[in-house]
C-alpha cells in the first residue's frame, strides 16, 4: 500500500494544486451538475460518478486525480458517440489527469465496463498533455467504424498506462488503444487480452512512439484480410513513430504478433510465441525503410515465420536471440540460436493471475545465454524481467549469473517447480 501510495504521489508530482475526486457511485452513470465549481457532484444525492469526475477535472485548470473505489465496476450507460465534452458516450479528457486507485492486490482493481455505452471508454483529446491510468481494468469498450476501443489518444499527448488490464474492447482500428501521431505512449505492467479490430491492430495501433514494458499481449483478434496482427506500428505522416517492446510476452494472437509498416521496431528480452502466422513482420512503407532491432528475445511456434523482414528493412545486428526457425531477422550474427527449440514450459500465470508467460524449462538453451553484459544502459540485457525479477540470475547453477533470453528470467533459487514444468 505504501509503495502504491508513493507511486501515486510521484504521479501527482507537477500537479501543483491537484484536486482529488473520489468516485463513490459506480452502479449508475451521471454527468456533473456544474463543471468548474471544484466539486464532483451529480444533480441529485451529492454523489460523484467517474463521468462527473472527468467533467469536473476537465473544467478545473491543471492536473487532477480521480480515485476509483476498489472491488467496483463502473458501468458507463449514457450513450451518444461523437460528442467531445464527456457528457455522453466516451469519457473525453481535455486536461491532465491521473485516473486509478490505491487498492491492491490486482483482483481488487476496479473495472470500467463500456458494454452498454456503444462507444469507446476514454478519448484523450488533442493537446491535453500528460494523462495517466493506473491500477484499473477497461473492458467491453467499442469504437465501431472508429479507432481505439478502450482509449483513443489524440495528437500531442503523453499517456502513461501503469498496471491496466484491457479485455474485449473492439474497434475498426486499434481494438484497445489507438495512438495518434505526435503523441507518446508508455505502457508498463499491463495486459491486453481478447481485444479485436476489423482493419488493423487487434490490441493496438501506434502512429506515435510507444514503449511497452513488462506487458502480456494475448488472444487478440484482427479481421483484416491481408496482415492480421495484435500490434500495428504505422508510418507517421507528422513526427516519428516506433515501438520498443521490452520484457513482454506476445502469444496466441490471431494471426501475427507485431507488424511494423514503415516504422521502427525494437524488441528486447521478449518472448513471442504461438501466434497463428508470424511473430513479427517488418515492411517498408513506400520509400520509408524502417529499422528492426531484436535482442535477447525468443521466437517459436509460428506457422509462417517467427520473424519476417522485407528486403529494404534495415535489420540491426542486436542479436542474442533464439528462434525455432531460420527467419531472415536472425541471419546476421553467431550469437543468435536458430532452428533451436527454446524448451519453454506451458503457459503460466503469476500469483495474482495478472501476467501470463512461458517460463524456460530446466535445460532450456535460453537460460544464462543472453548478452553477457549485465543490465545497465547500453547494449546489455534488461534490469528486470516481466514479473519484476532482477536480472541476472544464475539459472543453470554454474556460479555465473547471466541473463536469460526472453521475457522471463529463471530464478536461481528454484530447485523444482512441478513435474509439468520440466521441458527437456
Ligand atoms: Ca461540479
Ligand atoms: Ca483539471
Ligand atoms: Ca463523449
Ligand atoms: Ca540467468
| CA-CA gap between termini | 40 Å
Average predicted confidence as pLDDT: 92
Number of continuous helical runs: 2
Please compute the radius of gyration using only Cα atoms. Answer: 22 Å
SS-based class: mainly beta
- Number of E-state strands: 34
Query: What portion of residues is helical?
Result: under 10%
- Low-pLDDT windows of residues: 1-6
Note the overall shape.
globular
What are the bound molecules? Answer: calcium ion
The largest sheet, given as strand count, sense and whether it forms a barrel, is: 19 strands, parallel
- Please report which band the strand proportion falls in: under 5%, 5-15%, 15-25%, 25-35%, 35-45% or over 45%: 35-45%
List the helices and strands and how they pair.
Blueprint: H1 2-12, E1 20-22, H2 50-59, E2 64-67, E3 73-75, E4 91-93, E5 97-100, E6 111-113, E7 122-124, E8 130-139, E9 142-147, E10 151-153, E11 158-167, E12 170-173, E13 177-179, E14 184-188, E15 191-193, E16 196-200, E17 204-206, E18 209-213, E19 216-218, E20 221-222, E21 229-234, E22 242-246, E23 249-251, E24 256-261, E25 264-268, E26 271-273, E27 278-283, E28 291-295, E29 298-300, E30 305-309, E31 314-319, E32 322-323, E33 344-349, E34 356-360
Parallel strand pairs: 1-2, 2-5, 3-6, 4-7, 5-8, 6-8, 7-10, 8-11, 9-12, 10-13, 11-14, 11-15, 12-16, 13-17, 14-18, 15-19, 16-20, 17-21, 18-22, 19-23, 21-24, 22-25, 23-26, 24-27, 25-28, 26-29, 27-30, 28-31, 29-32
Antiparallel strand pairs: 33-34
The structure holds calcium ion (4 copies).
Amino acid at each position: 500500500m505504501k509503495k502504491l501510495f508513493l507511486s501515486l504521489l510521484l504521479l501527482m508530482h507537477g500537479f501543483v494544486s491537484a484536486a482529488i475526486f473520489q468516485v463513490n457511485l459506480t452502479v449508475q452513470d451521471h454527468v456533473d451538475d456544474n463543471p468548474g465549481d471544484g466539486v464532483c457532484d451529480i444533480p441529485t444525492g451529492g454523489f460523484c460518478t467517474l463521468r462527473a469526475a472527468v467533467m469536473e477535472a476537465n473544467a478545473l485548470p491543471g492536473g487532477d486525480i480521480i480515485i476509483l473505489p476498489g472491488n467496483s465496476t463502473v458501468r458507463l450507460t449514457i450513450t451518444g458517440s461523437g460528442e467531445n465534452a464527456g457528457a455522453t458516450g466516451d469519457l473525453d479528457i481535455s486536461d491532465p489527469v491521473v485516473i486509478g486507485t490505491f487498492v491492491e492486490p490486482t483482483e481488487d482493481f476496479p473495472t470500467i465496463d463500456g458494454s452498454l455505452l456503444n462507444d469507446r471508454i476514454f478519448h484523450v483529446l488533442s493537446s491535453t498533455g500528460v494523462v495517466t491510468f493506473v491500477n484499473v481494468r477497461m473492458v467491453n469498450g467499442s469504437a465501431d467504424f472508429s479507432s481505439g476501443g478502450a482509449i483513443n489518444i489524440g495528437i500531442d499527448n503523453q499517456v502513461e498506462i501503469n498496471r491496466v488490464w484491457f479485455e474485449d474492447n473492439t474497434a475498426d482500428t486499434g481494438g484497445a488503444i489507438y495512438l495518434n501521431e505526435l503523441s507518446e505512449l508508455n505502457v508498463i505492467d499491463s495486459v491486453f487480452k481478447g481485444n479485436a479490430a476489423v482493419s488493423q491492430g487487434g490490441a493496438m495501433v501506434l502512429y506515435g512512439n510507444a514503449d511497452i514494458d513488462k506487458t502480456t499481449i494475448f488472444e487478440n483478434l484482427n479481421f483484416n484480410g491481408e496482415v492480421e496482427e495484435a500490434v500495428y506500428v504505422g508510418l507517421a505522416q507528422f513526427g516519428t513513430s516506433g515501438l520498443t517492446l521490452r520484457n513482454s510476452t506476445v502469444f496466441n494472437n490471431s494471426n501475427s504478433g507485431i507488424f511494423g509498416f514503415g516504422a521502427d521496431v525494437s524488441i528486447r528480452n521478449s518472448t513471442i510465441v504461438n501466434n497463428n502466422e508470424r511473430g513479427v513482420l517488418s515492411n517498408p512503407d513506400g520509400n520509408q525503410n524502417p529499422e528492426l532491432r531484436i535482442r535477447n528475445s525468443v521466437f517459436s511456434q509460428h506457422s509462417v515465420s517467427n520473424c519476417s523482414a522485407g528486403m529494404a528493412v534495415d535489420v540491426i545486428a542486436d542479436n542474442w536471440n533464439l528462434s525455432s526457425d531460420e527467419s531472415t531477422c536472425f541471419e546476421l550474427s553467431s550469437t543468435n540460436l536458430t532452428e533451436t527449440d527454446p524448451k519453454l514450459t506451458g503457459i503460466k500465470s503469476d500469483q495474482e493471475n495478472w501476467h501470463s508467460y512461458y517460463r524456460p524449462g530446466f535445460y532450456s538453451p535460453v537460460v544464462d545465454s543472453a548478452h553477457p553484459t549485465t543490465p545497465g544502459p547500453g547494449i546489455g540485457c534488461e534490469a528486470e524481467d516481466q514479473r519484476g525479477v532482477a536480472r541476472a540470475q544464475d539459472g543453470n547453477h554454474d556460479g555465473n549469473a547471466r541473463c536469460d533470453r526472453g521475457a522471463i528470467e529463471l530464478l536461481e533459487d528454484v530447485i523444482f517447480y512441478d513435474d509439468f514444468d520440466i521441458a527437456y
